Amino acid sequence: MELRFQPALIQEVVDAFIEKTEREGDPTFYKEFHELADPIYENFPLDDREPEFQKLYQYLFGHWGFADIIDQAFNEFPDLRERIGIVLVRGVLKEDQESVDVLRKWGTVEEDLAKTFEAKGQKGVGIKLLPRRFYDPALARFCRHELIHIKDMLDPAFLYDPDIKVGNTPGEESLILARYRVLWCQWIDKRLGLWGKEPVSSKEQRFREFSTWYRKIPGKQLVAVFEGLWATEFFTHPELVELATDTLKVIDRAIEVEGAEVPERKKVMLMPGFPCPLCGFPTYNWVENLDRDVEPEVLDFIRENHPGWDSEYGGCDRCIEVYKLRAAGVHGD
Q1: Pseudo-torsion of CA 25, 31, 37, 42, nearest 10°?
Q2: Among the listed residues 172, 116, 133, 118, the one whose alpha carbon sits nearest the alpha carbon of residue 5
Q3: pTM, whole model, 2 decimals?
Q4: pLDDT at residue 230, rounded to an integer
Q5: Is residue 219 part of a domain?
Q6: Residue 280 domain-assigned?
Q7: Are 95 and 130 in contact (CB under 8 A)?
Q8: How many domains does the chain have?
Q9: For residue 60, which of 108, 98, 16, 92 has the smallest C-alpha distance?
Q10: Does 48 lie in the same domain as 117?
Q11: Which of 74, 79, 82, 98 has a 20 to 30 A CA-CA distance from 225?
Q12: For residues 316 and 278, is the Cβ–Cβ distance under 8 A?
């Protein structure tokens, strides 16, 4: 497995580490840097210095052990080492930009690079980190958590599909993706605890995070819902998307917990002006009693075209009429 770091990230990590240690009263790294950097100023003309400094930063990045931290994180996942051909590590400016993913969306250069490994049956992986992570004692724990994301993505049973579309508006998409990550991360931390590994966040911290994103579920009921999710042994990517999208599906996961209430399943309220779940446009003409008024084969046809939809969600009169015709073969598929 090949490991590559973005040159700009390498330089920022080294510079920030030198500044941090010197500020804390340890000039060792500052002195070592200048012992190697000063001769570059003395022996190379201005136009030739940049590649020399790049070599210096790469050397110190490895010499001071920053590259080893990422490499050693993979030691806990030997199956990933075999399945991944290359890992590209980039820097980001904000914490919410940190991520891991199968290498496919960083531009044509990286995609072409990933394809060379995919031809061998391996994957390319991208990791985006804040520079300060490299001198954070919790980096190994953080990397372990993030690598389980990759492990899940590469597990065929997880049914990972990075191109799945969520939400009808940018705001709705952001909410669903945030909830999705909360649910996925708490499942990862739950598994880490079962494996005897230190999670990024405790169960209590994950509950507080969960409650922030599902404020409409009352307090005691929220505990029963969270415990039901925490007790779940396995999720698939489509299940997590569904749970992030539909609060009622989350409520269905509630279990009996002492001192908590299991919320009742409430019928979806089809309010005038709400968006139709089939076309996404606001509607004032709902078809509500679909199980009674619409043929089962039409409902099945709608479900095939809208995974996660159910008859209780209703639909606008125009969509239902269109799907009746399509199911009858008037318009075809």
Answers
A1: 120
A2: 133
A3: 0.69
A4: 96
A5: yes
A6: yes
A7: yes
A8: 3
A9: 16
A10: yes
A11: 98
A12: yes
